Amino acid sequence: MSAGKVTKLNKGVVRQDLAMADGRQIFYYDKVDGSAEISRTAVDARAKESRPGVGELRLDALTNEWVAMAAHRQTRAFLPPKELCPLCPTKPGLESEIADSNYQVVVFENRSPSLATPNSGWSLPTYEGITTPVVEAAGHCEVICFTDEHDTSFGKLSLPQIRTVMEAWIDRTRELSKLPYVQHIFPFENRGEEVGVTLNHPHGQIYCYSYLPPRVEKMFYVAKDYLSKHGRPLLTDLIAREVQDEVRIIAENEHWIAYVPFASRYPFEIHIAPRKFVPDLAELSEAIADAFPEIAKEVLLRLDGVFGIEMAYIAAWHQAPVRSGREALGLHLQITSIRRAPGKLKYLAGSESAMGAFIMDMAPEQSAAQLRDVKL
Question: Which of 78, 230, 307, 341 has its CA 20 to 30 A from that of 283?
């Protein structure tokens, strides 16, 4: 098989596009030093399988929120043993999602997507109460594997490897923004079985929504209102307050700042934001992107060091919608952990789950101090 399309990105990263056995796309991201070349030509030798159909979007008329129905996901892999991990490279006895025998960073279309390419002519209905039509669950879902090493984690990666992951995030945000039915792009990582991980290999996902998710819609409304009243992005002023107060900052460098937010919802919640306002990952300058690995690694090592155990967390990139409000809603990474002590989790019980009203058991300043006190 000949090599696929080759695209040169920043920092010596090269993307090579290939096809999988069932027609999905896979993208290899390799940092190439000097005149060296890495050619990706491995063939996905698995038998061709039919792709699942597109699910449904149904409107919850009580809240005006869309819910994706994706019953086909019931059969997806669930905590397979290491030797059967579908995110490890292919080897004798294992034909995985990645046909090559090694990789640096790889992205591919999700085998069991919650959201998928709709038929032509698709559009999102307007609110009509209980008569709002059901439509196809339009969107796109990808998996991003941070490394071909199974027994590690994002925070333990080398700084150059994290930078390659960042380049993949930037590239996917830029490319997926071109899909006409995509309104919002959400890269995230679930780490730990406590937060619902079904594959333990270090990886994340990228969800592309054809609508604005409820949290984004609310943040979008607030950010636009603040900008119109103050002439500055809300995130800019939030960061300025953290710099002034100092007590919630846990790490910083020239281009990024990491802090526990003033009204945090979880026992350990950390926001990492660029000091200069940008709407999304694709708009990061090379210098700002270069400075991210250092602070990300420090934050995650501090999180693991609080109790001396690997902390389950959700790392969520918040960014502006693809086509609107880009001057108001700013990029930042939110990392949340539900562990409040060794052997104890914060469960989202009645108030949080039913009312969306969070109650914190300790002050943000306390968790910030615990994170700062970790000896690296």
Answer: 230
